[in-house]
Every structure is written in C-alpha cells, then in structure tokens.
Amino acid sequence: MGIHGSPTCVLSFGEREGAIGYLVGEPGRGLNHMFTMMNAARHKVGIQGIGVAERACQQALAYARERRQGRRNGAECAIAEHLDVKRMLLSMRARTDALRALALTCAAQMDKARHAEEEETRQRAQARVDVLIPVVKAFSTDQAVEIASLGIQVHGGMGYIEETGAAQLLRDARIAPIYEGTNGIQALDLAGRKLGRDGGAALASLVDDVEATAAALAAREDLLALGESLAGGAADLRAAMAVVLEGGRDPEQGADAIQAFATPSCRWSAMSCVPGRWGVPPWWPRLLCSTAVPIPSTTPSWPPPTMPCATGCRSVVPSAR
C-alpha cells in the first residue's frame, strides 16, 4: 500500500544448525530492557509521522499558490487566497509545528534521563519520557494521517492523481499508527501501565508545567487567548485522569474501564498539552489573535509564526474539549 522503499521481509533462523539465543541483560528483566529499545523506536515512528506531515504541508502550500481558480475581491487568484483553503493550510501547519515541538521536548527529556549529573534529575526526566512516548507515537502518527488527508483535499481532484504525490503521502503515513505497537496499544500503555504504576503522578507533573505555561501566556494581553485555552485544556485533562484512575480501581470492571478510556484519554492528553508548545517560543509577535493576515502567493515564509498559534487556539484546543 505504501512505504515501498522499506526493506520489509521475513527472516528464517535455524535451517542448518539450529538457532542460538543469547541472554541480553539480567535474567527476568528482558521486558524492561526491551523497552529501552522500544521507547527509542516509538519516538522515531512519531518523528516519521511528523516528517510526512511536514512534506504534506509543503506540497499543499506549493500547489495552492500555483493553482489559480476563482476570484477574490474581483480579481483572479490562487486558491491559497480562498478562506477555506487557508483554513486547511493553517490547520496542517499548526498541528505539524506543535507535533515537532512535542517530539523535541520528549527527545530533550530522553537526553536528560541518560546524561543528567544528578540521579533525581535523571529519574524525573525518565518519568516524563515514559508518559510522553506513547503520546508522541500515537498522536503524531494519527495526526500525520489526518494532515496528509487534508493535503489531498487542498489539491482537490488532482490529489487523486498519482503524479502529484499527494496520495502517496497518505499511504506512507497510514502504516505509522500500526507498527511499533498500534496506537491502541500506546493508549493502553499510558492509561493502564503508566498512570497505574504511580497514580498519575508523572502525567500530573506534566500538567503542572502546562498550567505554568498557560499562566505565563495569560499574563500577556497578546497571548491571553492561548493561555486561557491552554489552562482550560489542562483542567479538563486533570478531570479525565481522575476518571481513568477511579474506573481502574473498580475490582470487577477496572480492566474494562481502562480499555474503554484508553484511546480517548491518550488523545486528550495530547490535545490538551500539545498546544502549550505553541506558547513556548518567546518571539511570538502581537498578531496572535489576528485573522486579517493575508497569504501572499509570493511570500516563501508564510505563514507568520502567530497564525498557526491562533489557529490552534481557536480550533485544535476546542476539539479536545
């Protein structure tokens, strides 16, 4: 269906002298050792999704600038000038930028977990990694599929024509929610294993940081809208955590409750916390809440950094709530 460049194949062992197994690490701790590798692999699959999303953004914008159809203010224009196309392009860019920032945040914590001088710092960073890995993998890859699909929509009928490459991006993106542990498994890992083992402390610490970011944003008039949306999402996530933890403690229905809540809670974790990444850079100008910024067809730096921020504030965050 896609990823035709992947050397996926079947390996057979032991046809001649029998396969020999070697112990790696300590006896009885194989699963723990395996997750060192799996965490890195799942993080990289999330990055793969972000890469496809970025390519879809670039390709859709290039086509929208080139394709001329209809009029705006009485003059013939590129489809990038039409507000519904602008909406799709901004949605693609806003989500891709936030996903990239989230993956980089997780990568920074992975480095801290390995290289920080103090043991307490390493443990705290590892706890944050354990929470972020399933979110990065599941949410980034789910969003990659949606973003690639939006890219086809921007192309219109040409999106179904192979020579544009838009359809290939969707096919390539579709494997990422499946391999290295399906996104349903990522959600179960977060809701069952990660929340259950520490009573939600690691995720609560992440929400604390999101709330601190929200407060800093809300203190500025030009960033007030993002700060308020982010604070509301964080509060909703705390409430969702409480529901999952309470349901999981039921002696008869606990396991079923966790499975029922897993995927929504994983997505909620991402949709509530990811928008905080838009507010981290200190260089957002005062155009945050402006909707009047045009899309010049000849401007290579479009969109201005504030436009994805405003889009996320108005559409992505409410979709989580």
Question: How would you describe this protein?
Answer:
The protein has one domain: Up-down Bundle (Butyryl-CoA Dehydrogenase, subunit A, domain 3). The longest helix is centred in the first third of the chain and has 37 residues, at 30-66. Helix 3 (119-155) packs antiparallel against helix 4 (166-174), helix 5 crosses helix 7 and helix 7 runs antiparallel to helix 8. Strands 1-2 form a two-stranded antiparallel ribbon. Helix content is 65%, strand content 3%. With 321 residues, it is mostly helical. Strand 1 (68-72) and strand 2 (75-78) form a beta hairpin. The protein is globular, with a radius of gyration of 22 Å. The two termini are 34 Å apart. The protein has helices at residues 30-66, 83-115, 119-155, 166-174, 183-198, 201-218, 224-248, 254-273, 306-320, and strands at residues 68-72, 75-78.
Can you lay out the helices and strands and say which pair or pack?
Elements: H1 30-66, E1 68-72, E2 75-78, H2 83-115, H3 119-155, H4 166-174, H5 183-198, H6 201-218, H7 224-248, H8 254-273, H9 306-320
Helix pairs in contact: 1-2, 1-3, 1-4, 2-3, 2-9, 3-4, 3-5, 3-6, 3-8, 5-7, 5-8, 6-7, 7-8, 7-9, 8-9
Organism: Halomonas elongata
GO molecular function: oxidoreductase activity, acting on the CH-CH group of donors
Protein name: Acyl-CoA dehydrogenase
